[in-house]
Amino acid sequence: MDICRISRRLTAEMAEEGYRKGMFPMSETGLGLVTWHRPHTRAILPLESFHISRSLRRTLRRGGFEVTFDRDFEGVMRACAQRDPTWISEEFVQVYGDLQRHGKAHSVEVWVGADLAGGVYGVHLGGAFFAESKFHSVTGMSKVALASLVERLRLRGFALLEVQYLTEHLAQFGVVEISHQEYLGRLEQALAMERQF
Predict the structure, then answer these.
(1) Strand ranges inside the chain, DSSP E
(2) Are strands 128-136 and 3-7 parallel, antiparallel or unpaired?
(3) What is the pTM of this model?
(4) Does any domain span residue 196?
């Protein structure tokens, strides 16, 4: 069990403090509670070894989409919440929106025509980016969003991209697991940096 504490509410200040200490919140929407998670192993995506599959390379080359940043943060969050079960409650939409307005959370949007077709959002502190969730309504567009995020973080000199848990889906991009202790060391170094998203 990686739940290290439970609270009845969430604020932007509480969320930021949690990320700085190596925790992240999730909403138990049916119970009206916020659970704070500190996994024994952490999944990170090393920016220098991001793997682009042949199919993703073809998608990127083919185009037919537009990538933007922070154009529709709330839209990305709400699209990510369209799953059952979801940990993204209305309270989370408001709190992360507050973080975004203060430059501490960001989104990547992928548009096909006028439609939001994919995206990813997360929290940004120092040289660390904590990816929270991604979605697609058009095949491949969440992968385009992730590739665009990685490229931007590389260009801006970020040191850490954390993705919470390793899944088979994420493994295809080069995501690896490290111990919580190693994660805390990398987190401390990344937080000491000053980086602009």
Answers:
(1) 3-7, 24-28, 33-37, 41-44, 66-69, 105-112, 115-125, 128-136, 160-164, 176-179
(2) unpaired
(3) 0.95
(4) no
Q: In terms of Cα–Cα distance, which of 144, 132, 150 is closest to 66? A: 144
Q: Is residue 25 part of a domain?
A: yes
Q: How far apart are CA 142 and CA 165, in angstroms?
A: 17
Nearest to 15, CA basis, from 122, 118, 116: 122
CA separation for the pair 146, 142 (Å, rounded):
6
Q: In the structure encoding, which two tokens stand for residue 64, read together?
A: 């037919």
pLDDT grade, residue 183 (50/70/90)? very high
Q: How far apart are CA 75 and CA 71, in angstroms?
A: 9
Number of domains in the chain: 1
User: Is residue 187 in some structural domain?
Assistant: yes
Residue 92 counted as domain residue: yes
Whole-number pLDDT of residue 45: 97
Q: What CATH number does residue 132 fall under?
A: 3.40.630.70
Query: Count of H helices and E strands in the chain?
Result: 7, 10
Residue 82 lies in domain: 3-191
DSSP structure class, residue 172: T
Q: For the chain, give the mean pLDDT.
A: 95
User: Is 159 a residue whose pLDDT tops 70?
Assistant: yes
